[in-house]
Amino acid sequence: MASCQTFFHAFLQSCTTYAEKTAFVYCIGEEEFTVSYEKFFEDVLLLAKAFKARKVRQGDRVFLLSDNRYAWIVSDLALQALGAVSVPRGCDTPPSEIEYIVQHSQAEFLLIETEKLYNEYRTLIKSLKPRGVFLIAGEERHSWFEKTWSYAEMLEDRTIEPRDIEWFTSLAKERRAEDLLTIIYTSGTTGTPKGVMLTHSNIMHNVRTLPPLIELGTDDVWVSILPTWHIFERTAEYISIAQGSRLVYSTIRTFAADLEHYRPTLVATVPRIWEALYTKITTGLKKKDPRKARIFSLLVHISSTYRRNQRVIRNQLPVFAPQNVVSRAWAITTAAAQNLLLALPYRIAQKKFVLVQEKFGGRLKAAISGGGSLPPYLDEWIDAIGIRIINAYGMTECSPGIAGRGLQCDIFGTIGPAVGETELRITGDNDVELPRGTEGEIQVRGAQVFVGYYRNEEATAQAFSPDGFLRTGDLGRLTLTGELVITGRAKEIIVLASGENVDPTNIEATLSMFPFVQDAVLVGQDKKGLGALIVPDLEKLREFVLEKYNHVLEEREDALHDKQLLDRLRGEMNKLLNAKKGFKPYEKLQNIHFLDKEFTLGEELTNSFKKKRHVIEQKYKEIINRLLK
Fold it and tell me: Under the phi-then-psi rule, with left for phi > 0, alpha for psi from -120 to 50, and beta for the rest, what region is 263?
């Protein structure tokens, strides 16, 4: 793909090279459909032809409101063929955000997933006065008055003449690397969404550099569960297409069954999926058979300890400062001695974990975790049960690849080195580069870095250093051998009244180890101490309280606000926030509060499941003030 200027060129090349291979698998109800690369080519051609007939032209902005499905990627490629610019968003986007994005992006066409969704937003759609509206799934409903068409009527005639193929393939001559491919509006964790402009050149950097991290080949099979509009999943699909591999569309409901049935070699995930898996396995075992749960926990501990010792011996743990020879020799000796004792139990553990691995189909080469930092306890747990996790780091502004612990990287506990063709540095004040091992802001420069925020010159100027590095806003440090460790988010740092700075991410990750914690948000800006707002899983909370304190938690809502119970639970949490795990004395919880409502997408959560701290802090301002008087 090195010779391809745009992703449309890459698409055409793959459809020629891998014409007979299966590109996609998806289900509608109980019926399974398979799509070859040849059929994929035809579907994109027909839709591009239909869009052209309805006056979609190069440079037109097309707002795409849909969740992941095969028709999404077909629509995306059809728009790319014509040089139109997609502006994608998920179906759960709030109306106010849709209105803002459509108006700000100057979108002239709307592409809506279902007729139900169209009817839900009909008043808003009319007020936006688009030049045309396309329905992916819906009955034939062309109306000249509303200028609305369904794919069913647009694609009714599926005749492809030789001149159609000639026209379609000739479009590649009109596409350029610097052409705008998409505008993706950021999740808005700190305020109004900003439109990230990504060109074909940005995307093709990732298409070139990411496959080697996972040794991607034509025989690989993906199971896809993440929303395609999000750049992480979208890029996974792009590299799958470019390499001629197969992608299976799944859903949250069918994900577990699809893993066992399709036996993928790769899955792209986010930390929340692993948190859910961890909770499901640990609490499920505990509920079913407490004895087996204790044995499983012991085996995980044995495996984790053994693997950590092996890494000590092989020097595969992050090193931030030169090591003392005597200390290093002693660490190796101690690790080797422990592993002599653990060798047999470790082999037993690995045999038991084959059953867990079979839940993923039994041939998983790697699971890629992106879209947020994977907490250390999860990283260790996944590794202990024998699943190779590729902990990746990126952001929409980088298309998204920045760094990844690929199959070639053995330094555990890191994000790995920068991806190919990328400069990565850690900086302090005034964008001055810091020596390795020192914490500072992560900055990136490379062909994947976006060209700027759409119609927002001020934000674009603030995003870059004078010498052209993107200021990520994330904190991190580099090991002596160049692997990246993320330590926090500069904009999320809580400053206590005493002047101490607290990074909430590690504390929140630790709290999520409790099975009853669905979500946790650390609060305490300008306060004397820290508090936590917790979204509980009530059933698991009742089980925990019964087992731990032999106390039956009443059904009444006020039971969640019992001060004696809250103090006990806070004490349990503070036991984990200890110095041995790297927490400082002021990083203890002063109070906790259980919320009676889950965080929802589009409100407290972004569409990529990140917490909108500014929204949460504003919404629960009175509670926070009472919590931390």
Answer: left
Query: Residue 145 has what pLDDT?
Result: 62
Q: What pLDDT score does 563 carry?
A: 87
Contact criterion met (CB below 8 Å) for 523 and 624: yes
Amino acid code (one letter) for 69: R
In this structure, are residues 468 and 503 in contact, taking their beta carbons and an 8 Å threshold? Answer: no
Residue 527: its pLDDT value, please?
82
**C-beta of residue 256 within 8 angstroms of C-beta of residue 213:** no
- pLDDT for residue 260: 95
Q: Could you give the CA distance from residue 321 to residue 380 in angstroms, rounded to a whole number? A: 23
Alpha carbon distances (Å) from 399 to 206, 356, 406, 554:
7, 33, 18, 49
* 161 half-sphere exposure, CB direction, 13 A CA radius: 5
> In whole angstroms, what is the distance from residue 595 CA to residue 597 CA?
6
The answer to whether 218 and 247 are in contact (CB under 8 A) is no
Give the integer Cα–Cα distance in Å for 546 and 568.
13
What is the tens place of the pLDDT at every residue in 458-488? 999 999 999 999 999 888 999 999 999 998 7
Quick check: 133 and 118 in contact, CB under 8 A? yes
Query: pTM for the whole thing?
Result: 0.84
Closest Cα partner for 553 from 511, 290, 562?
562
